[in-house]
Amino acid sequence: MDEKNWQNVKEIFLTALEKDAKSRSKFLDAICANDAGLREEVESLLASHEEIEDFIETPVFQVNEVFTNGANHTEKHFGHYKIIREIGAGGMGAVFLAERNDGEFSQQVAIKIIRQAIAETEIINRFKRERQILASLNHPNIAKLLDGGVSSDGLPFLAMEFIEGESITNFAERENLNLEARLKLFLKVCAAVAHAHRNLIVHRDLKPSNILVTKDGEPKLLDFGLAKLTGENLSNDATRTQTAFRALTPAYASPEQLKNEPLTTVSDIYSLGVVFYELLTGERPFHFEGKSLEEIIKTVTEFEPPPPSANPQSKIRNPKLKGDLDNIALVALRKEPMRRYKSVEAFADDIERYLKGLPVAARPNTFKYRASKFIRRHKVGVLAASLILLSLIGGIISTIWQANRAETQRQKAEKRFSDVRKIAGSFIFEISPKIENLPGAMEAREILVTRALEYLDNLQQESSDDRDLQRELAAAYEKVGDIQGRVNQPSLGDTKAALESYRKAQNLRESVLSADPENPAKQSELANDYEQIGYLLWWSSDTKQAVELYQKSLEIREKLVAANPANPDFRQRCAKLQMQYGDIYAWDKETEKSLSHYRPALEILEKLTAEMPEDATVKGDLARCYSRLSDVFITADDLDAALGETQKSLAIYEPLVAATPSDLKQRRGMWVAYFNQCQIYIGKKDLAGAAKSCVKISEMAEADFQTDPKNETAQHSRAIGFYYLGELLMLQRKFPEAQKNYEKSLAIVSEKAAQADDKSEYQRDMAIDYTAIGKLQMENGQLSAALENQIKAQKLLEEILDNDAEIITPQVDLAKIFQQIGKIKLRQKDLTQAKTQFAKALKILQGLDAQNELNDLDKKILVELENDIQKNRF
């Protein structure tokens, strides 16, 4: 028997085992039809199953023969557990209710055992993989792995959390849940699956029987027997595993699963879509009774399911299903993986938006899509009709084409200009500025971006010979990039998407400038794009490319100022660029290099402020420049100078923000100034001043977050606020309260790192939090815990440096951590390790010092380290 026929026989056999004797016969009549050979093979397997007590319906051993029901039976143990009774059976083995019997404590668990009859290599490997997968998952809606091992008879087993419940669909029906309750229950399932996906795990067998709901109404995701790891954790024989044993539940399997194609997390979204559909209607989108496997595959891959509101077999009739819920379900059930929701979070987000009465992202299939599907199914007929139609109209087209070409091109150009001006002018340049500083506007801006990009990308394809259109498109892409992820301003926090939009704008600007290279306005526009892209690259730790782009922009800016010295806009833009350029070196604590950019910026802005005292944007830029100088002096440990610059900054910001409290850009600048003040007072050990400043930054961040929880900048500011409250409490020797605040900060940045494509911007923050917690624990004598947290910080910084070994600040931070680990080892009396850690720190700092990369504050750390080494005679 070839592989394909064997797979068919195996799948029919597995499905038949789940049916009772009466329905099994009807099932075989329908699915085998007139194929006597197929039915003979399946019935042969079924007969063998009955004879040897095979692995689906009957346990690998009879409980009443093996356990202590009778005096003549030998008791079997699985680790510390004793079997009570069988709970159920599945494709890999049986599941038993068991209890711990080692006398340590009382605990009931579910024991899963591979049946001996099928303990072939692939099944054992899958069983081991299930243990590995469950061990990596920790979520309140996923059944926990408690133990695992091999029995004295050599049977692999898992001990899992015992879930006493019923399938999600049965629970919803028995409890007669209303629509809202069903949706909220399903959202918890989505959270569990999303957690698995974030841990690079695809479940591959999501169905109601694998989602049990407890008596408390909490769903629990079970049975990762078919799950697999994605990405670099895939086993070397992943392809063979996909084809060699395609165990699945056809009613809930995605089209790509049924076709034995490669699977991704989007395959789980399809299965979730079937469960979602069934929760809404009481029925699955398709019924496969009496159909062969080939018919099932054809149905799932070629036919569209009815909308939940229009399913004629629906057991639940609810007019609320029509519209958004129909669209949500059908997007999850789209046949092409690329057209489904991109993630479980996106699926859940649409459901949450529906519950809040907000617009959803799901949209019905377009006519174009339905037409393309029709054409694929009826290629011959459509081709024949098309040829006839073309032969009829071909002559007419060729006759009028030349006459209409010029007029068509003119009308097309006019329409394109009209379209781009409509969307760019109305949506991007009129609506966006009115809401960009408006608290709570992030969701509106997200919708704006989605709609704008669809149209702009279509227009860009036809703009190659039209410079005016290219220029307008570039401006639109820049505004979209600002909304997507402009750093330190209210945005959606998607820096990767923002970078893509800015680069589209840059390409268009370069094309426009090539046709008019001496145009000052077009030069300035291209310099803007170099700056924005450079800033995002630097924020993403690509310092080298950021410097290259800043230098390109600065050459343009200085040329424009030299040629137009009276132009205030060119001067202001040059000053802002100098500040951004200085930021790169300030971050790496290169004081002189940063000042070489900040001081020219300050000179320009002070002159502009004197010339235009009522210009709020110039005053805001001057206040920012004072804050930048404050940062530099903090780094150089000149706290008095830093405090003076901070006070200058706040003297400008406070009246600006009071006059325009809804201007989030100026409000953000004031927060940064208070943040600097907080650092300064903590450094000066001025507890009263520190308390005032720390509370101020925490209150401002919390207020911004409560107003707009999707504001990425506000979320990050909250983390910083918690961290500095922790620092203040440390100075006050209030250790438990300090640790709570450090942990709050860590929780925020850890969550953001888990969600981010580029984690580097959060990793250093996480390292700082772990370091602070470790220092606190060392103060309390909790040396093991302190060491553990310092090592976590060390690994994060090493990962940052693996991506960019030239960044100075993480190197200094890493040296400090080695020094802290050395101090912990000294207190643990491990002198050998203490010496090793001090040597690592010394090597980093001396290497940086030899390259003149250490500032005055860092040099103090080096001196302290050398004193420690000398004191301990290392």
Describe the overall structure.
With 874 residues, the protein is mostly helical. Helix content is 66%, strand content 6%. A six-stranded antiparallel beta sheet has the order 1-2-3-4-6-5, covered by helices on one side. Strand 5 and strand 6 (156-161) form a beta hairpin. Helix 12 (324-332) packs antiparallel against helix 13 and helix 18 packs antiparallel against helix 19. The protein is globular and about 95 Å long. The model is unreliable at 51-74, 231-246, 367-371 and 395-400 (pLDDT under 50).
The tally of beta strands, per DSSP, is: 11
Mean pLDDT: 81
Q: How would the global form be characterised?
A: globular
Largest sheet properties:
6 strands, antiparallel
- The radius of gyration computed from the alpha-carbon positions, rounded to a whole number of angstroms, is 33 Å
Strand content: 5-15%
Which strand order do you get reading across the main beta sheet? Answer: 1-2-3-4-6-5
Protein structure class? mainly alpha
- Helical segment tally? 33
Helix content: 55-70%
Query: What ranges have pLDDT less than 50 throughout 5 or more consecutive residues?
Result: 51-74, 231-246, 367-371, 395-400
Measured between the Cα atoms of the first and last residue, the distance is 73 Å
Summarize this entry quickly.
The chain is mostly helical. Helix content is 66%, strand content 6%.
SSE layout:
Blueprint: H1 3-17, H2 21-32, H3 36-52, H4 63-66, E1 77-78, E2 81-89, E3 93-100, E4 108-114, H5 121-136, E5 145-150, E6 156-161, E7 165-167, H6 168-174, H7 179-198, E8 201-202, E9 211-214, E10 219-221, E11 228-229, H8 238-244, H9 255-258, H10 265-281, H11 293-302, H12 324-332, H13 344-355, H14 367-377, H15 379-435, H16 442-460, H17 467-485, H18 495-514, H19 520-539, H20 543-563, H21 568-587, H22 591-611, H23 616-635, H24 639-659, H25 664-683, H26 687-707, H27 712-731, H28 735-755, H29 760-779, H30 783-803, H31 808-827, H32 831-850, H33 856-871
Antiparallel strand pairs: 1-2, 2-3, 3-4, 4-6, 5-6, 7-9, 8-11, 9-10
Helix pairs in contact: 1-3, 7-10, 7-13, 10-12, 12-13, 15-16, 15-17, 16-17, 17-18, 18-19, 19-20, 19-21, 20-21, 21-22, 21-23, 22-23, 23-24, 23-25, 24-25, 25-26, 25-27, 26-27, 27-28, 28-29, 29-30, 29-31, 30-31, 31-32, 32-33
